[in-house]
Write a structure and sequence with these properties.
Number of strands: 8
Structural class: alpha/beta
Low-confidence stretches: none
Mean pLDDT: 91
Radius of gyration: 23 Å
Number of helices: 21
Largest sheet: 5 strands, parallel
Strand content: 5-15%
Shape: globular
Strand order of the largest sheet: 2-3-4-1-5
Helix content: 40-55%
Order of helices and strands: HHEHHHEHHHEHHHEHEHHHHHEHEEHHH
């Protein structure tokens, strides 16, 4: 029986404690060869972003250079090491878990998170910094002051461009703020706030200290709202070269399903967990990685999984509502009706820019809102129609989520609650390619 890494994001733990690993190390080589030195890749939750970011740390960190054979043996990158292996001081940030009840909570939580990351950096590379150095750097209150002091000390030491910055979940807290209102979000990214000056300091650091950067998140709104403060990053989210960087292909999950035995219903696995395509030019769709690990763990001796939907992977319908409510109320209902009544929705393209600041006002029209649902994984690229892009619900897990949203909308109008039996019948019909039952529930 395979030891599946469900919920794990520490690369060394997975590689040294016998967990099954789907090899994504070829993307280290790809990223290093790109002309863009500061890539940003956006994907929805539970697609392995944090594990990938952690892997970069073990590969590039000077402190782990001697562990390369132990950690990476048997992977693509072990056979094809790159010139920059083990060459950097790794400065890592993770902005999930920040309290966003109020704007002040968010700002203070962001500042505390930055300080912890800088403190961790100084402890890991204590051989390069005296206690007096560390105390001086950490005396800063604002996040940008901490970065400026750290970068200045690195310049004073004459280390050159030796830092690789990894930012995981760059927008997690900001998206929570946005769901509470556009004006609150604008206050978060104002020029005299904490967030924009932090990214301005990072940008300035690329001149003499920061050589490379890798950023993950979900939505591009915060990125675009930083304006010129962080215009060095390259959003590669819909680039065909990284379509399969996160999530698993059919070939990648085949050994897992083979190990589970003959009782696996591969068609069920496909219709429930596959269907994600992130580039209109990509031929392959991918599976949500955590959904696959969940399936493997729940697969019992009788060859069945009683509940195909992992409650830890699927967000509740309120996340969809939070996005759609950014736009006009009538537009919210129109978009929901389109999604559930049409197999595919045609849009001119995926909106790439969402500037939302005190100085600018962005119109969240139909294309923009559908694009946000795409970034969050609630819609996927289903195909092309000439120069147009077709979007659709990727799989039955997401279709179940839209059922819950529809139920909320119907109850809000005072209509009858959708009972579990009717919902189950309609979902089964969807497995068979019939959408009539789903439409009937909205009438």
């Amino acid at each position: 029986m395979l030891k599946l890494p469900y919920g794990l994001s520490n690369f060394k733990e997975i590689r040294t404690e016998g967990y099954y690993y789907v090899d994504k190390t070829r993307y280290i080589e790809l990223l290093e060869a790109l002309p863009e030195k500061y890539p940003i890749i956006l994907r929805s939750r539970r697609f392995g972003k944090t594990l990938f970011a952690n892997m970069l740390g073990y590969y590039y960190d000077q402190r782990h250079a001697d562990e390369f054979d132990e950690i990476f043996a048997g992977t693509y990158i072990h056979v094809h090491p790159t010139p920059k292996r083990g060459a950097y001081l790794m400065l890592t940030f993770n902005f999930s878990g920040i309290n966003t009840e109020t704007l002040d909570n968010a700002n203070q939580g962001f500042a505390f998170s930055v300080k912890l990351s800088v403190q961790s950096f100084l402890m890991r590379y204590a051989a390069h910094f005296s206690q007096e150095d560390a105390a001086g750097i950490l005396s800063g209150i604002r996040p940008n002051d901490l970065l400026k002091a750290l970068f200045q000390k690195i310049m004073d030491r004459g280390f050159g461009k030796c830092v690789y910055v990894v930012i995981d979940e760059y927008d997690h807290f900001a998206n929570n703020i946005l769901s509470q209102g556009k004006e609150m979000f604008k206050d978060l990214v104002r020029t005299d706030g904490y967030v924009r000056p932090f990214y301005e300091a990072l940008k300035a650091g690329t001149e003499q200290v920061v050589d490379r950067m890798f950023v993950t998140g979900v939505l591009p709104i915060l990125l675009d709202s930083l304006t010129s403060g962080f215009n060095i990053g390259s959003n590669l989210s819909t680039d065909v070269r990284v379509n399969e960087m996160f999530g698993f292909t059919d070939a990648e999950i085949a050994p897992v399903l083979d190990a589970l035995g003959a009782g696996v219903n591969r068609d069920d696995v496909r219709v429930y967990y596959n269907g994600y395509r992130f580039s209109p030019h990509a031929a392959q769709t991918v599976y949500n990685s955590d959904m696959i690990w969940y399936y493997g763990l729940k697969f019992d001796a009788a060859g069945r999984v009683d509940n195909m939907v992992d409650p830890n992977v699927i967000s509740d319908y309120r996340k969809i509502r939070a996005i759609l409510s950014i736009g006009d109320k009538a537009l919210e209902e129109h978009i929901l009706a389109q999604i559930v009544e049409q197999e595919r929705i045609v849009v001119p393209g995926i909106t790439a820019l969402f500037p939302l600041t005190q100085e600018t006002e962005f119109l969240f029209d139909e294309q923009a809102l559908l694009s946000l649902l795409f970034y969050m994984g609630y819609l996927s690229i289903a195909g092309k129609r000439g120069v147009l892009i077709e979007l659709a619900m990727p799989n039955l897990v997401l279709r179940s989520l839209y059922f819950d949203y529809m139920q909320y909308m119907l109850m809000k109008r005072g209509q009858t609650r959708i009972d579990g039996i009717r919902k189950g019948e309609a979902l089964q019909a969807l497995v068979e390619g019939k959408i009539d039952g789903l439409i009937a529930l909205t009438e």
